[in-house]
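thread from #wetlab-drylab

HS: before we spend reagent money on co-crystallization trials with 6-O-phosphono-beta-D-fructofuranose, can we at least see a predicted complex? here's what I'd submit
DV: go for it
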Amino acid sequence: MRVRAVYGRRVTRLVDVPEWKALAAHHAAIHGAHLRELFAADPDRGAALATDAADLHLDYSKNRITAETVGLLVALAEATGLRQRIDAMFAGGKINVTEDRAVLHVALRAPESASIVVDGEDVVPKVHAVLRKMGGFAERVRSGEWKGFTGKPIANVVNIGIGGSDLGPAMAYDALKDFSDRRLQLRFASNVDGADIWEALHGLDLAETLFIVASKTFTTVETLTNARTAREWLVGALGDEKAVRDHFVAVSTNAAEVANFGIDTENMFEFWDWVGGRYSFPSAIGLSLMVAIGPDHFRDMLDGFRRIDEHFRTAPFDRNVPVLLGLLGVWHRNFFGAQTHAVLPYNNELSRLPAYLQQLDMESNGKSVTLGGEPVEWDTGPVVWGTPGTNGQHAYYQLIHQGTTMIPADFIGFCRPNHAVGDDDGGHHDLLMANFLAQTEALAFGRTHDTPHRTFAGNRPTNTILAPQLTPSVLGQLVAVYEHKVFTQGTIWGINSFDQWGVELGKALANRILPELSGDATPTHDSSTNALIRRYREGR
Ligand code: F6P
């Protein structure tokens, strides 16, 4: 049953959809089942509840589900118009209804032969023109042809941006350091806390430092404040305002503000309003990463994204990795009441992946009104968090194993390391992966014991994503999987995953408070905020 128009208002409340009610009844019947029983009842369960997308293998058998659950979840996806919304997104439909925008991060990795039309214009040639410009620039910096103001080649690149203009390249640089030119140092400054830009520039020779100011809007106060400080220090160090031209480039959709800042728009790398900030990492926002890893590796990464886009668009929902992950998230969030979702990469290079996914997921699906503006009557996005294994095992896994809260988790691991360290029998990596496998086994099956304190109840849900090795392509695949997972969930919940009005109020209030911190006018807020402002003024 189709329950809503593709772009807009819900026709039927989600909780009244028959497929939702069927899931509620099914949950009542099976929620008490134990994974021990489910595995004992079906010797093939591990193989049956597993699937592949490009290089990623997903085993989702260690969730409290049966084949019937999957069928019912898929029916819900169909009933809530997921197929139509996927088609609308890929076709350039303006599915971001509150901002009247298309949602086309998939166009950023579309092949040159594709055609995607927005407002009467094919966007694919524009995407490839910018990619070529980025490639030319990255090669000039990497080869030493691009010189700083004093004639020195560039040795350091500092990306100044925040949120989607920082988290993607920062996460990917850590992930792909092995593929980068180690003679170049890449650093990131995002926080308006002066400590961040100070540390980012500490010890650098500014004569060989290039700043990439990355901001979709080019009005973000943190980014502009850091960029102005960097410009002031650069001009101070090199003694000439003209140095800015050789040391600053911009990535933005806003040429007027880039020019206003004093960056030549020749040195601006463009993207477009149909790329959401948190979906912008495969756009020109990835320029700093491209300088570090080179255009060929960057293209490999885009190819990885594209392989998952194709899978998401065409694979049947019951074998579609992003759809399955999204549906399992709905199962846990809405039927088991799970409030958080952990992402646990068994790979140190992915240490920033959870932070990247926090913005992707929580800024997208942290919503409490539907596309049509009515309050939602069901839970939406969970809190997303995590750190690399095995570190987490010695910190918070205790609660995942024996606490009172169900914490569904994604375990992400690789067959081969980028750093083979240790002896021929696998060394560090086998040890890491033994832990990876042991944790999901322990979480699922637990352990009975005479003493209650040593008993592990088990039955704790996990997904396992296993890939051959962390390469640029595999990183692109992983990110695309999570992008489309978030989209799947937003579609089912009937919310707009592509706006972020919730960040506005704090920005407006900060603008109001700022002059009150240095002045002596009576602050005009509530009694708590007023008292804190006065205390800050006394102490500053
Ligand atoms: O305030 C939130 C936000 O708008 C994010 O959505 C975005 O990624 C970030 O700020 C940075 O925005 P910009 O790229 O325009 O500087």
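DV: Confidence is low (pLDDT under 50) at residues 1-8.
HS: ok that's useful, forwarding to the group
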